[in-house]
Amino acid sequence: MGEGRLSLLPRAKMIEILYNIISDYTLRNVILGSAIVGIIAGSLGCFAVLRRQSLLGDAISHAALPGIALAFLLTLSKSPLILLLGAAAAGFIGTLLVLLFTHTTKTKEDAALGIILSVFFGFGIFLLTIIQKLPTSNKAGLETFLFGNASTLLQSDVRLMSLFALMIFIVLLFFWKNFKIIVFDYSFAKSIGLPVKTINIILTALLVFAIAIGLQTVGVVLMSAMVIAPAVAARQWTNSLSVMVLLAALFGAFSGISGALISSLVQKMPTGPTIVLVISAIVLFSLALAPNRGILWDMYRKKKNRKKIRLDNTLLNLFRLSKSHNDPYHAHDLKSLMAIDPTGVREAAIELEQNGLVKRAGSRWGLTKQGIEKARSLAQGGVF
Amino acid sequence: MAKKRMAVNVEDLTVAYNEKPVLWDIDMAVPKGILLAVVGPNGAGKSTLIKTILGLIKPAAGTVEIFGASYKQQQHLVGYVPQRGSVDWDFPTNALDVVMMGLYGKLGWLRRPGKEEKKLAMEALEKVGMSHFAHRQISQLSGGQQQRVFLARALVQDAMVYFMDEPFVGVDATTEKAIITLLQDLRKRGKTVIVVHHDLETLKSYYDWAMLLNVRRIALGPVKKVITPKNLEQTYGGRAPFLAAKSQND
Amino acid sequence: MLSPQAEILILAAIVAVACGLPGVFLVLRRMSLMSDAISHSILLGIVLAFFIIRDVSSPFLIIGAALVGVLTVILTELLKKTGKMKEDASIGLVFPALFSIGVILISKFAGNVHIDSDAVLLGEIGLAPFNRLLINGIDLGPVSWWIMGSVLLLNLIFIIVFYKELKLATFDSALAVSLGFSPAIIHYALMALVSITAVGAFDSVGSILVVALIIAPPSAAFLLTSRLHSMIYVSALIGIISSVSGFYLARIFDASIAGSMAMMSGIFFLAALLFAPGSGLIAKLITHRNRRYEFALSMLAVHLLAHEGTRKETEENTFTNSLIHMRWPKRFAEKVISKSVKEGLIVDDGKLLRLTDFGRSTARKVMTL
Q1: pLDDT reported for residue A21
Q2: For FRET with A13, which of A36, A117, B133, B166 sits at 20 to 30 Å CA-CA?
Q3: Structurally, how many domains does chain C consist of?
Q4: A107 and C260: CB-CB below 8 Å?
Q5: Residue C346 φ then ψ, to 5°
Q6: Distance CA C121, CA C39 (A)
């Protein structure tokens, strides 16, 4: 297990690994393949997440399993193209069935997705156990589609994946603004005469293919995480769709490569789960720390806001109290303020004094000229 | 033909969900250059009416014409402001980008919005007083500001007929004033504006025409003629006696 | 003595019924996919609990693992509450992460844990008869019987005792609050129940196929019945039929028992979708056809009434006009008009369609609907 600690590797070993990556056939395929999976799933995932179809990805990837098994049973070939087309066809059928269930009966979307996901998967398992008992020689290897195994990627697989990735990418660029508008405002898009149904089908088909090309690397069980997680992480860092898609592709590629590398270098680390852990860590980091949208940022803003409200309230209360004395500069004991709201009055008064809005006279506190002006404008703002 | 001059002409429009009628046999002829409010209680089919005219919902019967031809042929003449709540405002985009979506119909399938489109969108934002917020993420806008962005998007459509679905819901007083000024300005420039409206009190001061709707068309015409206690009673049942009495006193 | 086949069959039926009970409420509360999330993440719970307890059949292991199931629900809700993502994304983030940790732990310490990745997905219901409960040398049947039997009993007791509260929290949580029940407590209790059920069923059918048994039979029952208690019975029945037919299907093809059970539950759902009286697809098509005429008759009457006595009457109230305005095909329009005449709604004088008094009152009645 000693080779598992990547961070503690000596420099020479690092260089050796780097050299291996470039020269080693398997490693090169692993890296290229998982990068492609991450890029494509990450970028298409943005649209799925924004349309609240995150879990459709889960249903599609599970539904693809019987497609792979059937494609093999019908052709007895493990050609990557045939398996990929089988996966995509089954994924697409699964999606259509979800639509059929929800649009024609009172079945709700969650139940429809759950049924497609588990029943198709069951059918896939059923077929896989039949295949295992076939007398043919090349039946082994289909189980890798369950959890994925990047080191089984051949150069021909990677070539095919790149081809599909390229096609997906071109279509994405072509239809960019159409995808954007139907995701943001479907009825407006329809009202300006865009063929929304066609655009919708194309977008769904892209998602299906994006998932299908990732199955060998990540596996059907965990592929949905590659669709959802990069998008959620990317959303934290930007308010622009194009940047979000680029970032999601980057996060996807990074988690794909590092996960696949770890799993090829460390023994007994399945690829899919390792990739998922890397991308989950990125999500956690982004949720907590991203500027503006990060949770820490929220907390800081809330605290600052609360402090401001407390200062304003103290100032206003002093102003109101002195009004009843016909003397705006009339000083008060802080206890009369605490009667209104006891929390943090003294701290607020001290801070107001530092800002020159309040003046202390013995144990009594009064407004300065500046303080009166500020209080008056606050009172007129009508916020309190 | 008298029909030709009508900006919007709806005949015998019936819309049903699961064979249950939501709109019954609606006739609606709206001449060019008026500002029309569509009013009625909740569930009266106001939004459904607009959506059906815009081809978003398929009617069970009836015809819709915009300036004498079908909606499909005339959609370049139509601008649309959907309900603000119908979209996810956390979508990663800014105000300018949303306004530019109003030009996508004219851009066709593949062309991307360029400098010219940006300029038009900025001008529209200027008109609704939102040019300072052009690059603001849309979730950081207030309800009123979001509504103005939607309005600007309709403005860049440079339409002849505008349909607006409850543009005054959840907006502040300043925005409400800005919106109505804008609508009246559109009307002055010869545009036809059809608005789903909720507030009976502002009806007379805001609009030229009104349509009272409750599944059926109760009345359509100039506000003063249409807003009668009898019509209101028919539209709202017994639910708006206070307003009916009030409009009598006006 | 029962044959191993019979023992497996009985176990399959127990599993199916136990899964369907909480499933009914998940489906009604539109939380079906929580079962997917829970059934995945309990894998981590099982592994962790095993590290501590070192006994696969201990009831504490079930409880420990179920805790992770509830944790999944809490984490999902926390993520959603941050406001940074929608609910679907939060579900889709939590369970893959927890499941991945579980799979990696199994894979790294495979020698120590008596589970492997295949068993995680497939379950080993076929091996159930080999693991027997022996007390004082007396054979009390497979251990799984007792585990799943207890889970089934627990689910039954919970649903019987809290039937009223469950029903209220499901259909009207606002009313539940005002009556002093806490929907949150009911919610978490239900999630705990789903977790325990999933852990119990895990051995037999694996983590993904348990989802089929939790969602599909209740969804089929939802289409077949309109009352809560009959939905529970029907769901249990469909669960049993799915598991039994699945078992025989697997025997014929010599394939995975759990896989075919899931498949059969899907097929029965599909059957319900097509043939359910009232809400099934075929029934809907038939009523749609019938109602189409009914609706067309009243539409024609309303149309005629609207234009009666107006200047445009001669233009509007004709056969050709009804063709154009209603967008009816010619044959359909002919049928509608002849039906209207037959029912005494209108008279057709060859030129104009005129309403009868009965037709007029019918039109007024439908308009005030």
Answers
A1: 67
A2: A36
A3: 2
A4: no
A5: -135, 165
A6: 10
Q: Within a domain: residue A3? A: no
Strand order in the sheet with A358-361: A332-333, A364-367, A358-361
**Which residues of chain A have a CB within 8 Å of the CB of B102?**
192
Chain C, nearest residue to B16 by Cα: C295
Q: Are residues A140 and A282 in the same domain?
A: yes
C33 touches chain B (CB under 8 A): no
Question: Which residues 47-86 in chain B show a CB within 8 A of chain A?
Answer: 51, 54-56, 72, 75-76, 78, 80, 82, 86
Check pLDDT > 60 for residue B4. Answer: no
C216/chain B closest Cα distance in angstroms? 26
Whole domain around residue C359: which residue ranges?
282-368
For the segment B101-123, what is each residue's pLDDT rounded down to a tens digit? Answer: 999 988 877 788 889 999 999 99
- The amino acid at C243: S
Domain stops at, among A256, A273, A293:
A293
pLDDT in tens, C167-179: 988 888 778 777 7
Q: Which of B16, B25, B63 sits opposite C306 (nearest CB)?
A: B25
C86: chain A residues, CB-CB within 8 Å: 49, 52, 54
Q: Could you give the CA distance from residue A256 to residue A219 in angstroms, rounded to a whole number? A: 12
Q: Is C327 on the interface with B (CB under 8 A)?
A: yes
Any idea what DSSP says for residue B94? B
Domain coverage including residue A75: 9-293
Residues of chain A found within 8 Å of residue B157, distances taken between Cβ atoms: 192
A250 and A366 in one domain? no
- Higher per-residue pLDDT: A329 or C286: C286
Closest residue to A238, CB basis, from B72, B92, B105: B92
C-alpha span between C365 and C131 (Å, rounded): 70
In percent, how much of chain A has pLDDT > 70? 94
